């Protein structure tokens, strides 16, 4: 095998390893929602190519309010769904859209765009 | 708990409340889509313009005159290609910028999506071409190598066009909700401080008296305080015939007044109106998930990085084992693989059908709670129908009057009706109403004595009148003159017969019964034709239950079931291994509705009923059950078609892009064809979902 083939293959395998590590192996740390005076656990979520933050930690038994702000025009992200809480909201560009729910059971719950391309996670403790 | 929460949901503050800002919300969305569409089309035209030039100039030797001017590997061609490189960069910067920013944003979240794939594919083609142009010496031939700027430009342009078409088609799937929002009138004529004034509908308050003219729209929910009219409620209930309404009757906002003028007092405004509730529920349902989608979600979570890995593997294999020019082949294969993969088609497969299906239901007076209800309804095997109020009207009416030879019908009914005016017994009202319906004028009873378990002993128009069961007649020693057989037959038909004796002699029998709704029989037959087992459940005695069962064609009747045992009976059927639906009114049957796999609340649009059931039928007809199941079957069929299509597309497309056909047929896919296929696949999914709208009730 010629040296250029070896270089390409080694580099290719390295790249595959990187993809596996980067997308699947690294766990992101969550952001804890702040408790407001109104008793809500509140968190701002920026919607732009993804959700920032995309892992939100909340306590159970206290109402949660996520304020979504969508700052892009691509129609993929125009809806956000929280299937576990039977909630969905349309996110008009540039507007802050609050979504409220009550986390009752501890666990991990997903929120995502309608097509499931953008994803985030709510961890109830 | 969260059901209550969902009613006072965030949607209100978010401007989702249709009654408050429905128009704006609908307009906003349409406007936003229109803006995005125009922007995509501009991007497409720019890309297409540059793309035509790029495609021609990438292979000038294929064209007669150009070939002479720019021969292959000439210096003049190098300059043209350098110009193309810059033009391609401008396309990346303008038409393709959103793919690159989107990919970058996703990368920051350690995720990848369609943007990542397009950006990678077009980016790699551009970088390769530029290196080939600037450093030809690193390539084996050492001469001017072919460039792939056309791939970058044309793929970006085509995907933009695909996205624009997708947006257009997407707008149509949510037409139903726009129609519902559009039903809301903009203004209301109210009386304040003794003056009539027109105000925006958002400013109507509970307690306001609203004036509605013939042909006018009813702005909010309320109760008629003056006048009467026929009202067309088809837009909310799906009931096609106008409904007669008089003082004290409820009116629903957004329905149309046909004939008379009337005033009503507003009882529900803004986000509390029936229409606002319906819209909110439909929106939530359209945003929900179908259970089959969970698998899709898992797949799509791994999809994009896997495609990138496949592209790299493809590159390695082609570079290591492929024919010359190896680098060019390896590159084409990798870029084509990145571009042909379409996570969008997979991701859109269920939401698009769900949005259309749920919308279709809403337009027919069927409110589906969400994807889960829809999927379960499709696989139902047994339908349990509550008798009273579901199969029947739920209130007794006078059905028969049989008289002996010495009396005539109107005399008997006039006197019996007059006496019953004083009674509070539920069956009494049926006799009074029946007598009035026959045009009789009823006098008041002179004396009235109710004998529990027997009937009534009274005086009216100077005559004595006994009305009651056979025990009463026997006790007063009144001969039954052979009418016992008639009474028994009436009872067998599920009716309640009562003897009437006037001045000590038997006058005849009146019978009342809860009658079957006009279309119940047909609906039940359709359900049976759909291979569903139909069971009736009732608290009434077996005889009445069986009689109604015979009328509508139900063989299996569960009679004498106490209200609290209904849920238990549903469970018993479930234990037979069947998927069971319960159809009843939302309030009394709530436990049974909740126990059933799918609970249908019939005949109401109130939030209580909506909360208790999986599917709410606003119009009180069993036709709704038939339609709901048909819609769920059609929608789920559509979902599976979409999923199958998207799955097969990717499963077939990816290997072809990787070049598996090359060793056998010498066939290799061009990245441009891949871009067309990719755009086409997501448009197909949406077009198929739109096809659902052509569904019509059978």
Q: Can you offer a commentary on this structure?
A:
The complex is a heterodimer of chains A (about 120) and B (about 700). With about 120 residues, chain A is α/β, with parallel strands linked by helices. Chain A has one helix at about 5-25, and strands at about 30, 35, 40-45, 50, 55-60, 65-70, 80, 85-90, 95-100, 105-115, 120-125. Chain A is elongated and about 70 Å long. The model of chain A has no long low-confidence stretch (mean pLDDT about 85). Chain B is built from 27 helices and 22 strands. In chain B, helix 4 runs parallel beside helix 7 (about 150-175), helix 5 packs across helix 6 (about 115-135) and helix 10 runs antiparallel to helix 13 (about 345-365). The model of chain B is unreliable at about 1-25 (pLDDT under 50). In chain B, strand 21 (about 600), helix 24 and strand 22 (about 615) form a beta-alpha-beta unit. In chain B, the strands form 4 sheets. Chain B has a 7-stranded mixed sheet, with helices on both faces. Chain B has a 6-stranded antiparallel sheet with strand order 2-1-3-9-4-7, with no helix packed on it. Chain B has a 6-stranded antiparallel sheet with strand order 12-17-16-15-14-13, with helices on both faces. By secondary structure, chain B is of the alpha+beta class. The two termini of chain B are about 40 Å apart. Chains A and B meet through helix 1, strand 4, strand 8 and strand 9 of A and helix 1, helix 2, helix 5, helix 7 and helix 10 of B.
Structural class of chain B: alpha+beta
Question: CA-to-CA gap between the ends of chain B?
Answer: 38 Å
Beta-strand segment tally of chain A = 11
Beta fraction of the residues of chain A?
35-45%
The helix fraction of chain A, in percent, is 10-25%
Major sheet attributes of chain B? 7 strands, mixed
Measure the end-to-end span of chain A.
Answer: 55 Å
Q: Uncertain spans of chain B, ≥5 residues at pLDDT below 50? A: 1-23
Strand order of the largest sheet of chain A: 1-5-11-10-7-8
Number of helices of chain B: 27
What class, by secondary structure content of chain A? Answer: alpha/beta
Q: Which outline of chain B best applies?
A: elongated
Q: Report the count of strand segments of chain B.
A: 22
Query: Oligomeric status of the shown chains?
Result: heterodimer
Average the pLDDT over all residues of chain A and give the rounded result. 86
Estimate the global geometry of chain A from the Cα principal axes: elongated
The largest beta-sheet of chain B arranges its strands as 10-22-21-20-11-18-19
């Amino acid at each position: 095998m010629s040296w250029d083939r070896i270089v390409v293959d080694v580099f290719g395998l390295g790249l595959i390893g990187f993809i596996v590590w980067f997308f699947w192996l690294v766990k992101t740390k969550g952001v804890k929602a702040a408790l407001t005076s109104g008793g809500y656990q509140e968190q701002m979520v920026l919607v732009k190519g993804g959700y920032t933050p995309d892992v939100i930690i909340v306590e159970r038994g206290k109402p949660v309010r996520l304020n979504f702000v969508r700052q892009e025009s691509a129609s993929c992200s125009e809806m956000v769904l929280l299937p576990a809480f039977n909630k969905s909201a349309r996110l008009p560009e540039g507007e802050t859209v609050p979504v409220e729910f009550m986390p009752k059971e501890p666990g991990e719950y997903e929120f995502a765009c309608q097509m499931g391309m953008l994803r985030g996670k709510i961890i109830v403790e | 708990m969260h059901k209550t929460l969902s009613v006072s949901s965030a949607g209100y503050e978010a401007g989702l409340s249709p009654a408050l800002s429905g128009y704006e919300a609908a307009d906003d969305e349409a406007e936003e889509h229109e803006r995005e569409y125009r922007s995509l089309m501009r991007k497409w035209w720019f890309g297409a313009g540059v793309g035509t030039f790029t495609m021609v100039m990438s292979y000038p030797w294929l064209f007669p005159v150009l070939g002479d001017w720019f021969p292959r590997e000439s210096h003049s061609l190098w300059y043209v290609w350098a110009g193309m490189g810059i033009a391609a960069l401008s396309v990346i910067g303008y038409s393709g910028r959103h793919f690159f920013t989107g990919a970058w944003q996703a990368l920051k979240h350690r995720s990848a999506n369609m943007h990542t794939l397009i950006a990678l594919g077009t980016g790699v083609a551009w970088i390769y071409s530029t290196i080939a142009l600037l450093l030809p010496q690193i390539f084996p031939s050492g001469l001017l190598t072919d460039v792939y700027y056309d791939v970058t430009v044309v793929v970006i342009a085509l995907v933009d066009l695909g996205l624009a078409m997708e947006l257009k088609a997407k707008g149509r799937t949510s037409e139903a909700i726009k129609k519902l929002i559009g039903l809301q009138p903009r203004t209301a004529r109210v009386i304040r401080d003794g003056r009539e004034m027109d105000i925006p509908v958002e400013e109507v308050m509970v307690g306001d008296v609203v004036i509605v003219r013939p042909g006018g729209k009813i702005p909010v929910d309320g109760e008629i305080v003056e006048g009467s009219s026929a009202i067309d409620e088809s837009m909310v209930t799906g009931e096609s015939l106008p409904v007669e309404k008089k003082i004290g009757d409820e009116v629903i906002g957004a329905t149309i007044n046909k004939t008379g003028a009337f005033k009503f007092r507003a009882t529900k405004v803004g986000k509390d109106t029936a229409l606002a509730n319906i819209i909110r529920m439909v929106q939530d349902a359209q945003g929900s998930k179908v259970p089959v989608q969970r698998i899709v979600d898992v797949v799509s979570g791994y999809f994009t990085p896997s495609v990138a890995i496949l592209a790299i593997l493809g590159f390695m294999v082609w570079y290591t084992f492929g024919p010359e020019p190896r680098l060019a082949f390896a590159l084409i294969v990798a870029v084509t693989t990145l571009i042909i993969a379409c996570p969008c088609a997979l991701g859109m497969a269920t939401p698009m059908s769900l949005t259309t299906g749920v919308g279709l239901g809403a337009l027919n007076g069927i409110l589906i709670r969400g994807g889960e209800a829809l999927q379960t309804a499709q696989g139902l095997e047994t339908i349990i129908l509550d008798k009273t109020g579901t199969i029947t009207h739920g209130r007794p009416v006078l059905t028969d009057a049989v008289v002996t030879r010495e009396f005539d019908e109107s005399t008997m009914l006039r006197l019996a009706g007059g006496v019953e005016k004083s009674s509070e017994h539920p069956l009494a009202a049926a006799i009074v109403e029946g007598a009035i319906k026959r045009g009789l004028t009823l006098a008041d009873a002179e004396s009235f004595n109710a004998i529990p378990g027997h009937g009534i002993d009274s005086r009216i128009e100077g005559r004595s009148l006994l009305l009651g069961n056979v025990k009463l007649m026997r006790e007063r020693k009144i001969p039954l003159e052979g009418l016992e057989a008639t009474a028994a037959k009436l009872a067998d038909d599920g009716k309640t017969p009562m003897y009437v004796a006037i001045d000590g002699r038997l006058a005849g029998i009146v019978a009342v019964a809860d009658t079957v709704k006009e279309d119940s029989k047909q609906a039940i037959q359709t359900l049976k034709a759909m291979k569903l087992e139909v069971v009736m459940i009732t608290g009434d005695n077996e005889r009445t239950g069986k009689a109604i069962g015979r009328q509508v064609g139900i063989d299996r009747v569960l009679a004498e079931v106490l209200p609290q045992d209904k849920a238990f009976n549903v469970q018993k059927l479930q234990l037979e291994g069947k998927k069971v639906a319960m159809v009843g009114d939302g309030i009394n049957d709530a436990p049974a509705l909740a126990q059933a796999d799918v609970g249908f609340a019939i005949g109401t649009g109130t939030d209580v009923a909506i909360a208790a059931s999986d599917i709410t039928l606003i119009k009180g007809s069993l036709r709704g059950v038939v339609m709901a199941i048909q819609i769920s079957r059609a929608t789920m069929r559509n979902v599976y078609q979409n999923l199958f299509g998207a799955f097969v597309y990717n499963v077939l497309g990816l290997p072809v892009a990787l070049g598996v056909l090359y060793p056998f047929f010498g066939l290799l896919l061009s990245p441009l064809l891949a871009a067309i296929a990719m755009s086409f696949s997501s448009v197909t999914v949406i077009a198929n979902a739109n096809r659902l709208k052509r569904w019509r009730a059978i």
